[in-house]
Automatic annotation (TrEMBL):
Classification via InterPro entries: BlueCu_1, CopC_dom, Cu-Rt/internalin_Ig-like, Cupredoxin, ET_Amicyanin, Ig_E-set
Domain Blue (type 1) copper: 170-258
One GO BP annotation of this record: response to copper ion
GO molecular function terms attached to this record: copper ion binding; electron transfer activity
One Gene Ontology cellular component: periplasmic space
Metal-binding is among the record's keywords: yes
Transmembrane annotation, as ranges: 6-24
Protein name listed in UniProt: Blue (type 1) copper domain-containing protein
Organism of origin: candidate division WWE3 bacterium GW2011_GWB1_41_6
């Protein structure tokens, strides 16, 4: 009788051990396949199209802070320029390239802003939809340089959910209930946009990113109180990315100038 009980106990133990061995092996296999998936996302490409959005990991140079467009951002239009912000004084020969399929869609030279903390390069407004790889070389007054890279995409079909305010010389955007109304608008080149603050909370108009606000400095306002307004006339086609620096996570806006 004792022998029978012992045999049953051994069988139960063996079955339990086998079951756990199976579970552990399976979860290890799953972990391995997840790792190889994320590794394949890291491969370097600069030849993708907007239909196949597969962003690589950005490479941040020394003293890098932010960039606009942001890495992985998908825009409804071509940005007027690509801007990269640093926490150290930039010097010549700092350079930005905006590449797709080996072609540079930047216009003119890379320009270092007056404060020395941002550099920018204009972008061709007729650049096609797709993923752009930005390669930059940031140089310091001591002559040393560090490189970095990031990607963004243009997909013009995303402009279908922008309010069409084209062919108006002036348009208004209300700031109320901690929102821009409307958040996404299309306007014609030469249009004057006025933001009106309708509530008892101070708001700001600031171009991206936060807090560098360097994408289009002309568009940066002071504090706008209740009943006050702020205006900008847009004379260059492209997409403008902005936010309220008092509410940068929720108040975000887009103006597509055509
Ligand atoms: Cu605000």
């Amino acid at each position: 009788m004792r022998r029978v009980i012992m045999i049953i106990a051994i069988v139960i133990l063996a079955a339990t051990a086998g079951y756990y061995f199976f579970i552990i092996t399976k979860s290890r296999q799953q972990k391995l396949s997840n790792t190889s998936k994320s590794e394949s996302n890291n491969r370097i490409i600069d030849t993708s199209t907007a239909e196949n959005l597969d962003f690589t990991n950005p490479k941040k140079s020394a003293h890098y802070e932010t960039n606009t467009p942001a890495h992985g951002e998908i825009l409804a239009g071509v940005p007027i320029n690509v801007v990269i912000d640093f926490n150290f004084d930039l010097a010549s020969p700092s350079e930005i390239k905006i590449n797709m399929n080996g072609k540079d869609f930047g216009v003119g030279n890379t320009v270092i802003d007056d404060g020395g903390l941002s550099m920018r390069r204009a972008m061709k407004n007729d650049a096609p939809d797709g993923i752009y790889s930005v390669f930059y070389n940031a140089c310091w007054p001591d002559g040393s340089c560090h490189n970095g890279s990031f990607q963004f995409a243009v997909n013009r079909s995303l402009s279908s959910d922008f309010s069409d305010l084209t062919n108006n010389p002036e348009v208004t955007i209300d700031m109320n209930s901690l929102q821009f109304s409307d958040e996404k608008i299309r306007i014609s080149n030469g249009t004057k946009v006025t933001w009106n603050n309708l509530e008892n909370v101070a708001h700001f108009i600031n171009t991206n990113p936060h807090p560098a606000h360097s994408y289009y400095p002309v568009m940066n306002s002071r504090s706008i109180g209740q009943g006050e307004s702020f205006s900008v006339t847009f004379n260059e086609a492209g997409i403008y990315l902005y936010h309220c620096s008092a509410h940068p996570l929720t108040m975000r806006g887009y103006i597509l100038v055509e």
